[in-house]
Amino acid sequence: MKNSTTKKEENYYAKNKKAYHDYIILENFEAGIALNGAEVKSIKKSQANLKGAFVTVENGEAFLKQAHISNYKFADTKAIDPVRPRKLLLSKKEIATLAQNLEQKGTTIIPLELYPKNGLIKLRIGICKGKKLYDKRETLRKRTQDLEVNQAVKRYK
Predict the structure, then answer these.
(1) In the chain, % of residues over pLDDT 70
(2) What H or E segment, with its residue span, contains residue 66?
(3) Beta-ladder partners of 68
(4) Under DSSP, is residue 11 helix (H, G, I), strand (E, B) or coil?
(5) Which H, E and C letters describe 8-40, residue by residue?
(6) Category of 60 on φ-ψ map: left (φ > 0), alpha (ψ -120 to 50) or beta
(7) How confident is the model at residue 78 (pLDDT cuts 50, 70, 90)?
(8) Which of 55, 103, 124, 130 is the most exposed place for a label (fewest CB within 10 A)?
């Protein structure tokens, strides 16, 4: 029997934690990502970093830029650029929605996490709006209050 106090297993390869702090996420999308074999192995070994990455729409196609996926140690090809643009696999309707939101002032598209789904690697992207400093403080204050309430409830059970 498993202990109920064990930590919940995290089900992602890479997560952009800073995005949740710096941006208000308006809408989420799930996208496939075009990778080669060595990149897949690197991602499965959690050697990917989404910090500073963003999504652009060019010529009716969406691309992930500035995401760092390290070269796989045992790959036979070493000439792959770790920060090369990678094509995102989305429907035309989703790409049109992303392009329309990119045209609005103050919005951007940020990758949130890489995770497995049915044996494939998926990328969750979010249409985001930047937070102001006072929004960040308010979020931290609310999180602290929620934590204190949860601890008090747990203490008196």
Answers:
(1) 92
(2) none
(3) 49
(4) coil
(5) CCCCCCEECHHHHHHEEEEEEEEEEECCCHHHH
(6) left
(7) low
(8) 103
Is there a contact between 95 and 62 (Cβ–Cβ < 8 Å)? yes
State the Cα–Cα distance between residues 135 and 67, nearest whole angstrom: 26
Matching residue, tokens 């196609």: 61
Token reading at 66? 């500035």
User: CA–CA separation, 93 vs 112, rounded Å?
Assistant: 21
Between residues 6 and 46, which one has the greater pLDDT?
46
The residue extents of the domains of the chain are: 14-131
Fold of 14-131: Small Protein B; Chain: A; (2.40.280)
**Residue 55: what pLDDT?**
94
**Dist CA 81 CA 62 (whole Å):** 19
Q: Are 127 and 55 in contact (CB under 8 A)?
A: no
> Do the beta carbons of residue 13 and residue 121 sit within 8 Å?
yes
pLDDT higher than threshold 50 for residue 136:
yes
Side chain identity at residue 33, one-letter code: I
CA 110/CA 141 separation, integer angstroms: 24
